[in-house]
Amino acid sequence: MASSGPTLGDVIKFGDDFELDLRAYELRRSGQSLKLARIPMDLLLLLLEQRGQLVTREQIIARIWGKEVFVDTDNGINSAIRRVRQVLEDNPEEPRFVQTVTGKGYRFIAPIQMRSVSPPRIAADEAAPPAREPLRSDLNLVKPRSSATVWPFILGAVILLALTGGAFLRWFRPPLRSQPAPERTMLAVLPFENLTGDAAQDYFSDGLTEEMIAQLGRLDPRHIGVIGRTSVMHYKHGSAALDQIGRELGVQYVLEGSVRRDSGHVRITAQLIQVKDQSRLWTQQYDREPKDFLAVQGEIARQVSDEVEVALGVDKLERVHAQETLSAHTYEAFDLYLKGQYFLNKRTSEGFQRAIDYFQQAIAKDPTYARAYASLADSYALLGSYSAAPPDQFMPKARAAALQAMKLDDSLPEAHTALALIVQNYDYDWQTSDKEFRRAIELNPNYATAHHWYAEHLAWLGRFDEALAESQRARQLDPLSLIIACDHGAILYNARQYDRAIEQFRAVRELDPNFPRTNLIEHAYEQKGMFAEALADLQRTLSSLGDSPYTIAEMAYVYGRTGQRTQARLWLAKLEALNRRQPMDPATFVRPSIGMGDKEQAFIWLERAYAQHANSLIALKVDPVYDPLRGDPRFQDLLRRVGLSQ
Hints:
The protein is built from 26 helices and 14 strands. By secondary structure, it is of the alpha+beta class.
């Protein structure tokens, strides 16, 4: 027979220094009281009562909320478990106290001890304490709604918060000079939790997160800033407290939720939380069939726009772009698109290849899917840069996909951003690139990638003050993005601010020592004459990432700069052997030639790179590595042909 649980008056001890005093309704550690709200406290008590046994989610619902009340139980349980783990400093990957049984529930696994405590005497003139009244954030009672009316409340509730002020973000980077606080309220959509118990479904929950970011970002960008995907994904499967998230992202509100999907049913829950007091302002749950998942987006977008107009007291806002009624084939295309986004966001050559395959499948299902074309364009364009392949191998395909996306939907900011990058890197068409970047930002000022790539665009033109300001906008929208942080360092490098660039790259490495883009620190070392540091960093790169054309070329450059010509030739020969096996971007050979003082060979490779439209030539105007060539008329002519002579 199962033993009875602890009774009122018991003190339950566990771990080395935790105790739960039921009489005082208090959790303590080493005698110090720990703050824990009612729902997490009740959940912890339930787990302790059933120590060693599986406590199902159904049992938790029945105990804490009751079976007859409709509440946001999935998010309530998830939030409560997260808070319990935070206060116990318990790692979900290696738990000491609370173990997750995937798809079923939880189990308290640590030994416990109980002791009885006599109830305190109450003096005659003392009133008994009143019953504990649930906080508003504990209630969350809602009436079920039809699937056609649920989404407007999710997004509309967020918009109603747009009347409060903003906060300036501080994070791992060195601060810029006198940056003003943003005037907008900042919101983060935390990664939707995959409750299917199947990690292979992560692409769907991640995709839902990205969809919410995109849709919220376009509702009212004048008043609401929405944090980008890269930053919020840092909190996936994490246990960071909401106040910590608020500080790190500079947000006042977070939207969090979960998704559970099978072949015939999708359930999504969401809740809006105010960071300053961690109160839940709104919560909702809804169900629909998978084939209907996108079909109501047009209606939702129109209703949300109406909500915004009423909440902000304006005559009319630009309507959110919405998809029309969708077929089953279109839903399948959407699912394939989400898989493609999952691999595109990995930012690896292999990931780009897999993303391209999924986007092509999505387009085959729905040839009118503009966003799939836009992401296909990004994949081709980035694959060329990451793989050191000849530019004409992928860039024409990227251009065709971007143009098709714009033909299908000219209001899609992702399509304008992709085209801007392509005409800049491949056509050296700076005017069109500038126009397309600005159009993308106009369509969605919350699109961090557009700000990020436009900042680089301005830097290539030597407009460094504008570039740094635009980079700062990208960083506010995606504050934990390592690539945005690294490219901020690259702008500082090209502006000849080498010490600040080195500081920036080192700051990023504190978060991820192996992030490949931080290898640009070697360039700053070289221009400062810190060749020993540059070589040490290159050796580190070779050890961690193996031989890559870029690293081999850089080794030849540094040995050439330091007069070690024998070593330089050995590394150059290694690069040439790679090129014979798999032809690469001719620009890869320019740096070794400059380092070895071989200007004639450098110009031969530059001309070959120009003939192939190499994207590395966009740095000709600003990269200090080209300084030894600047006095040569051939270099000035090349600058003119690349459109950078002004």
